[in-house]
Design goal:
This protein has 521 residues and is mostly helical. The chain has 19 helices and two strands.
Length: 521
């Protein structure tokens, strides 16, 4: 939660948050169990392994699993934790006490994996179709050799191979690698999850890197392990600064400076950016905006989501940049996040619609609010709404995030054609408030409550209904109680596993609390 003392105003807290984000060159996310375990497995040459092994052991849940969220989300991090534990045990370079704890962790982790529902359904996280079968294969390789190399691990349940979970295919990593070997190139979109195919990629396709491969410590460690000895030295130089920032551990992407700054600025702007923050945010925009498209982190592909947010924030803070960078992502009806995308994103398209409208109002000489792309995009977003009234999206576990983005965009632009969709979303939101005044897909959270508040305020025509007024009052009390308690934000955002971008979440909550406050004025 916020570091600001009680009693400080919204401008004071916003100024403090922008300053903290500006001073952090990496980003305020917590370490990833999945990513850290991948580094343990692939990079025994990286200093600080004892710290990471201790974290692996201590982070295991009582049921033997690893990770955040409900059971299906724990499949990938638990596979990663089990494989890392077995890899360390096979290397044998740990003390007897650590060895016993790792053996226990591996045993309990395997039991937890076998207790998962065999057919999911599994979440749509990044490249899970490659990462899951690759890790199952690695775990089974360890188990096949456990009798000789890890005495005591081959009895009982540990002797049985793990089955490939329903919906995944054992040969997927090899199949994808063969496809790109035939083409003679490996696309950038596979760099971030390179560890999933590293064992199948021929040396001629291993990419050259400057910094972390695909912004991922796990991908970088796998790259070094499958490359040349010189690559290990390069990987150490690139991984050690990240480890220093995250106390010897690793997040799933580093740095997230672009992503974090754009989302923080946009969230605060909804409630009104204090004048003192404008020079800093304008500096961010000048650094981030790129006429060729914006990438969320170094080594990633340019994408429509970050590009749209750069265009939007530029417009909101008065920078003279147009919506041209979005052109490359338009597919005729809506915007693809990136070239080669498998599933579309409603939040990326909601951001694009906001950017087109805001930019056209700021720069009326440009094509924008009368651009037929905006009309088609409005229709596409309406068509993606569920029958219950909400929107789901692949970048976030909670429908409140996607619904807030879509409602905001449609309320700004859609007019009468979107009125039914907006009203349906508001009704769904009001219907799903919890008894304590919160909202949440798995349990009430301040983050999701902030989104719900913004849905109701954006959808209110021209003022909230009595039912919405009551809901907003309960939400205001809940957010105040959570602020005083200082509760940690649960991980709800999708990458390879769940993560929590704390500064961005804090900006959303801070903005919602201010919007609730000023509605009384």
């Amino acid at each position: 939660m916020s570091n600001a003392p009680d009693g400080t105003t919204f401008p004071e807290q916003a100024i403090d948050l922008v300053a903290r984000v500006d001073q952090d060159r990496w980003g305020s996310v917590r370490p990833s169990l999945y990513e850290t375990a991948r580094v343990i497995s692939a990079a025994p040459w990286l200093p600080g392994e004892a710290r990471r092994i201790g974290y692996l052991i201590d982070a295991q849940a009582p049921d033997g699993s690893w990770g955040d969220g409900p059971e299906p989300y724990r499949l990938l991090p638990t596979l990663s934790g089990v494989e890392a534990a077995l890899a360390v045990l096979r290397r044998g370079a740990v003390s007897g006490d650590v060895r016993a704890r790792l053996a226990s962790a591996a045993t309990r982790g395997l039991t937890a994996l076998r207790a998962l529902p065999p057919n999911g359904p599994w979440p749509d996280t990044a490249a899970a179709e490659l990462l899951v079968p690759a890790l199952v294969s690695k775990v089974n390789e360890h188990l096949a050799l456990a009798t000789d190399e890890v005495p005591g691990l081959a009895d009982g349940a540990l002797a049985d191979r793990l089955a490939i979970p329903g919906g995944y295919h054992e040969g997927a990593p090899a199949h994808v690698a063969a496809r790109y070997e035939a083409r003679g190139t490996l696309p950038v979109k596979l760099h971030h999850t390179f560890e999933g195919i590293a064992g199948h990629i021929p040396r001629t396709l291993i990419p050259q890197v400057d910094g972390l491969l695909g912004s991922s410590p796990a991908a970088t460690a796998a790259w070094a392990a499958s490359h040349t000895p010189a690559a290990v030295k390069q990987a150490v130089a690139n991984l050690e600064p990240v480890a220093r920032r995250y106390d010897g551990l690793f997040p799933e992407a580093a740095p997230i400076r672009v992503f974090e700054r754009l989302w923080v600025a946009a969230a605060l702007a909804r409630a009104g950016l204090p004048a003192a923050t404008l020079p800093t945010i304008r500096g961010w925009v000048d650094e981030i905006y790129d006429p060729e498209g914006v990438r969320g982190a170094p080594g990633l592909m340019t994408d429509a989501d970050d590009t749209a947010m750069a265009v939007l924030v530029a417009s909101l803070v008065g920078r003279p940049y147009g919506a041209g960078p979005l052109d490359a992502f338009h597919n005729g009806s809506h915007f693809d996040c990136y070239v080669g995308e498998d599933t579309g994103s409603v939040t990326a398209n909601a951001h694009a619609l906001q950017a087109l409208v805001s930019c056209s109002r700021r720069l009326p000489s440009e094509d924008g609010i009368d651009d037929p792309r905006a009309d088609k995009l409005c229709d596409w977003l309406i068509g993606q709404q569920s029958t219950e009234g909400h929107w789901p999206d692949k970048w976030h576990a909670s429908p409140y995030y996607a619904t807030e983005r879509c409602v905001r965009a449609l309320a700004q632009y859609g007019g009468h054609r979107a009125s039914a969709a907006v009203a349906g979303a508001a009704a769904w939101t009001a219907d799903t408030q919890r008894d304590d005044g919160s909202w949440g897909v798995w349990g009430g959270t301040a983050e999701e409550t902030a989104y719900a508040v913004k849905i109701l305020l954006a959808a209110a025509p021209p003022a909230p209904t009595p039912r919405q007024v009551r809901a907003l009052g309960r939400a205001e009390a809940y957010l105040e109680a959570v602020r005083e308690a200082g509760t940690e934000h649960p991980a709800l955002w999708h990458d390879k596993t769940l993560y929590a971008p704390d500064a961005m979440i804090e900006a959303e909550i801070l903005g919602a609390r201010e919007m609730l406050r000023v509605r009384h004025l």
